[in-house]
Amino acid sequence: MQIVIIGSGNVAYHMAKAFTQKGIPLTQIFGRNEKELNKISEELNIPYSTENLEDADLYIICVSDHSVEKVSKIITKKNCLVAHTSGSLPKEILAGEYRKASFYPLQTFSKSKELDYEKIPFFIETENENDKKVLFELASEISKNVMESNHEKRKYIHLTAVFACNFVNHLFSRAKEISDSQDIPFDYFLPLIDETVQKIYEIEPKLAQTGPAVRNDVRVLQLHEQLLKGESLDIYKVMNHSIQKMYEL
Amino acid sequence: MQIVIIGSGNVAYHMAKAFTQKGIPLTQIFGRNEKELNKISEELNIPYSTENLEDADLYIICVSDHSVEKVSKIITKKNCLVAHTSGSLPKEILAGEYRKASFYPLQTFSKSKELDYEKIPFFIETENENDKKVLFELASEISKNVMESNHEKRKYIHLTAVFACNFVNHLFSRAKEISDSQDIPFDYFLPLIDETVQKIYEIEPKLAQTGPAVRNDVRVLQLHEQLLKGESLDIYKVMNHSIQKMYEL
Q1: Which residue ranges of chain B lie beneath pLDDT 70?
Q2: SS3 assignment, position B28
Q3: How many Å is the maximal CA-CA distance in chain B?
Q4: Test the B interface: residue of A147, A150, A159 with most B CBs within 10 Å
Q5: CATH code of domain B3-149
Q6: Chain A (65-84) residues lying within 8 Å, Cβ to Cβ, of chain B
Q7: Residue-wise pLDDT tens digits, B143-155
Q8: Complex ipTM value
Q9: For B16-26, what is each residue's pLDDT tens digit?
Q10: What is the nearest CA distance from A79 to chain B, expressed in angstroms?
Q11: According to CATH, what is the number of the domain A155-246?
């Protein structure tokens, strides 16, 4: 099977790397950003182009959500399968006469961070059984965790991921801003952060909640509000309100 | 040195366990909740009482912030050292004529979750050099990470911990609420959550931010708002606003 990856960002890079590591040859990596494509091409030994899209059986589009539709029109071939990697788009956004699919890896990708691809859940949606079989087999080469998911479910998977990953990372950013402001090394907090995550492997997060809000410790809540301002204060208030609502305090 | 732990909650239990594991004998565990004290006493083989506080050189008060002052008055002895374990109280809240100290373990404690005490940072504040030496030596038996910290700094350490731990756990609760609502197993998200944390060991959280807000993906942000309501919607809006402010989007 001839496979082409379209895109040069974090997802494109890691998808290309995941396939290459498993010995699955890629026909081409195609995109606009020549500098990035060149880097990926050199590291992973895959031909690249910014102009001539190679003929393939499967095109995997790894670009930002708002570019998927436009990019999907580049593929003029009809007898092929085209999959996007977005968590929030329907497969019907793909605007060609080919067979359409979704191939969604549930992970946070940064180019500079190595990943264990085996643990990444893949969610697949296709138009027919044969394409499903093809994408399941392909994803199973990379990951131990391959599932089917329609667009409706995928939207909620993506939304959950925003809370459990994107927002969590932003809390780390705001936390570090606070500790930096007092010259407290953020490293102090890493064991606490590790434990916060390890806990949810054993205890429901709702039962693992600690801190002043769930104790309804009004004195500490007020003290903290005096130490904060701007967006961090907004976050502090909304999170505490949400905690207290959840526990009916 | 005779040591008494006061309290029967999560912190009291883990402090007692940490000392016991290192072969440091505890004279007594003292508190109000006989059922909990009895459980801890049986597991760790420490005498307990709800009525008669034993004579000791060091009392470590492990109770909720709002009870520390009241509980500290139980200790009528003068020639002894009394430490509380609160992140947000000054040592002067301790209301006796003894020497006062703070002995703050930066960790999230749940009784049912085992902990590696060696990794817990301890922050110590005392009235004099000798007490400091005593508490440093004691904490160093448990942990590899013992530091001095005055009340001002401790307040900010605690506040940072609320963002990096308590709020993060609450995001997991809200995330699970969303995935549960669609019968999506929360286990799917564990590799993503692990990676979110592993990333900050290598990349500044501010540089590791991914997701629709930092991409300013208005279509996805609007779609997600339609899927949410109540406190989760409030969190969604505040977090995205804060992300966009941080990156000046």
Answers
A1: none
A2: strand
A3: 67
A4: A159
A5: 3.40.50.720
A6: 65-66
A7: 999 999 999 999 9
A8: 0.90
A9: 999 999 999 99
A10: 31
A11: 1.10.1040.20
